[in-house]
């Protein structure tokens, strides 16, 4: 069983897998934010950037969990912000980086479907902007999630990280100096 | 970047509420604010206890201890960020792979010679005739790629350094004769200044290395175990011309340091307390100087350049991306 997608499902369902493979919601988000950062994170490469003005370091974690991190619903590999009337709600403080958040939510819906065997609808909520966006798992989205899982697998198992390419959020990234020096 | 604090007097330091208190044997009391401390340098006889150590550990503050003759005696390093098994494994792998070790060592030598050369060029363009030294340094650089092992590289570096020291003879006044580099103990003022300055560069490199989870004992140009923290020797060589030598020339030529700032003993010469204070004040100011970084697109302090150098090495070890040593660009 070498396909990362089936390995992930088997791992999540608790089957005995030779080579277990896990993808968290945060990993899915990193995949869309910066593949290089995903590689660094997957290896726990810690860089303590001391420049106080940009000591963000946790851009993704903060935006995905906010202050309610204790209330997360843990379901195996994923941790939901909240379930509301049976719908999976992902809360984003701002609408920057919307696509990564949308894919993270899509991954949760996919996980419900493929791993837990239940269909769910999703909502991407931006409380500060009073905006909500419905997300559901159609075939397109499903393909996108699965190819992302394969993409994540390829990155985290590679010997070296993808090359650095300049992005608007490099400026506030914990790895900034590490990448660009 | 945070500050270094130097303590010359004898006495004791202890935790006092949320700060560190120094009480000297003369009854003087002082506070050292830990939030802004990178490291505390102990030059005198100082007592401390474990309560202080864990307090400094919590705040990520290192302590560097200097003993008799200003010699570096050791460091008490904060634990934070210093454990990364993978990093150490990769560090050892690179050491064990002759090709990779050679290329890292070569890069250190190339950078050191480049930075010596920058100093020589600076004085050559002024009133001194140093064309011969520049030529010798260029010849040494040309031999780096042909060196077949580490000891040959060491030889290239030593030749370059010997040539470089002619600059000291030329630039410094006659009252500060140099007569070649001698170490323990330094026989004259210039050697005393070099030794003192270089041990400060070395200790600052120890701090920078420990902040990045690299193991300071695994090195490439110097043989591991040559000194306790041999990786610090590799990194420090790159920065000595920038941090120690230029400062030394300036202090002596502007007469901020004079013959009176030294105490002579049989066969040795050391900075006295006043001399050390003057030197360190200027040294710390140099560390705080900033320069526009060509790829980070912001100003960084000289002290942060040390940290960046270790980042570069760590990046090379963990990602396989090439390492290019620090070469003064301004
Ligand atoms: S600095 Fe830019 S390229 Fe590097 S990890 Fe961060 S976001 Fe990615």
Any overview of this molecule?
The complex is a heterodimer of chains A (181) and B (330). Chain A is of the alpha+beta class and 181 residues long. Chain A is built from seven helices and six strands. In chain A, strands 3-4-5-6 form a four-stranded mixed beta sheet. In chain A, strands 1-2 form a two-stranded antiparallel ribbon. In chain A, a hairpin with a 4-residue loop joins β5 and β6 (131-135). Chain A is globular and about 50 Å long. By secondary structure, chain B is of the alpha/beta class. Chain B contains ten helices and twelve strands. In chain B, the strands form four sheets. In chain B, strands 1-5-7-8 form a four-stranded mixed beta sheet, sandwiched between helices. Chain B has a four-stranded mixed beta sheet with strand order 4-3-2-6. Chain B has a two-stranded antiparallel ribbon with strand order 9-10. The chains are: A alpha+beta (181), B alpha/beta (330). Chain A binds chain B through residues 43-48, 50, 159-161, 176-178, 180-181, and chain B through 1-2, 81, 84, 86, 211-213, 293, 295-296, 304, 307-308, 311-312, 314-315, 318-321. Iron/sulfur cluster binds next to α3 and α7 of chain A.
């Amino acid at each position: 069983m070498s396909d990362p997608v089936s390995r992930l499902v088997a791992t999540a369902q608790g089957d005995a897998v030779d080579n277990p493979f896990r993808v968290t919601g945060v990993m899915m988000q990193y995949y869309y934010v910066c593949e290089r950062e995903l590689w660094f994170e997957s290896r726990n490469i810690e860089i303590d950037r001391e420049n106080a003005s940009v000591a963000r370091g946790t851009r993704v974690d903060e935006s995905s969990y906010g202050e309610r991190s204790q209330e997360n619903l843990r379901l195996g590999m994923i941790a939901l912000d909240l379930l509301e009337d049976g719908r999976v709600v992902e809360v984003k403080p701002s609408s920057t980086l919307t696509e990564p958040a949308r894919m993270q939510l899509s991954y949760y819906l996919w996980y419900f479907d493929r791993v837990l065997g239940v269909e769910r609808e999703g909502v991407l909520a931006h409380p500060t902007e009073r905006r909500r966006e419905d997300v559901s798992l159609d075939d397109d989205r499903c393909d996108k999630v699965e190819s992302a899982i394969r993409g994540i697998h390829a990155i985290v198992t590679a010997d070296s990280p993808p090359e650095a390419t300049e992005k608007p959020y490099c400026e506030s990234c914990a790895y900034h100096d590490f990448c660009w020096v | 970047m945070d500050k270094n604090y130097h303590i010359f007097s004898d006495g004791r330091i202890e935790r006092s509420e949320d700060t560190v208190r120094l009480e000297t044997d003369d009854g003087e009391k002082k506070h050292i604010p830990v939030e802004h401390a990178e490291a505390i340098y102990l030059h005198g006889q100082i007592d401390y206890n474990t309560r202080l150590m864990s307090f400094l550990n919590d705040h990520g503050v290192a302590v560097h201890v200097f003993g008799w003759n200003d010699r570096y005696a050791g460091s008490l390093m904060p634990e934070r960020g210093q454990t990364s098994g993978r990093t150490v494994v990769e560090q050892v792998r690179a050491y064990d792979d002759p090709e990779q070790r050679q290329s890292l060592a070569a890069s250190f030598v190339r950078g050191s010679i480049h930075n010596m050369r920058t100093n020589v060029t600076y004085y050559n363009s002024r009133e001194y005739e140093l064309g011969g030294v520049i030529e010798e340094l260029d010849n040494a650089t040309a031999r780096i790629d042909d060196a077949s092992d580490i000891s040959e590289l060491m030889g290239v570096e030593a030749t370059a350094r010997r040539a470089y020291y002619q600059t000291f003879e030329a630039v410094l006044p006659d009252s500060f004769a140099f007569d070649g580099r001698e170490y323990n103990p330094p026989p004259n003022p210039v050697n005393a200044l070099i030794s003192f300055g270089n041990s400060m560069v070395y200790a600052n490199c120890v701090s920078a290395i420990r902040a990045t989870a690299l193991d300071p004992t695994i090195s490439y140009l110097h043989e591991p175990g040559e000194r306790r923290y041999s990786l610090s020797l590799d990194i420090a060589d790159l920065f000595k011309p920038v941090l120690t030598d230029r400062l030394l020339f300036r202090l002596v030529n502007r007469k901020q340091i004079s013959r009176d700032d030294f105490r002579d003993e049989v066969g040795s010469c050391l900075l006295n307390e006043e001399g050390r204070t003057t030197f360190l004040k200027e040294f710390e100011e140099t560390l705080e100087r900033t320069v526009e970084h060509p790829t980070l697109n912001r100003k960084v302090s000289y002290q942060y350049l040390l940290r960046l150098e270790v980042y570069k090495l760590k990046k090379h070890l963990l990602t396989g991306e090439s390492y290019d040593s620090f070469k003064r660009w301004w």
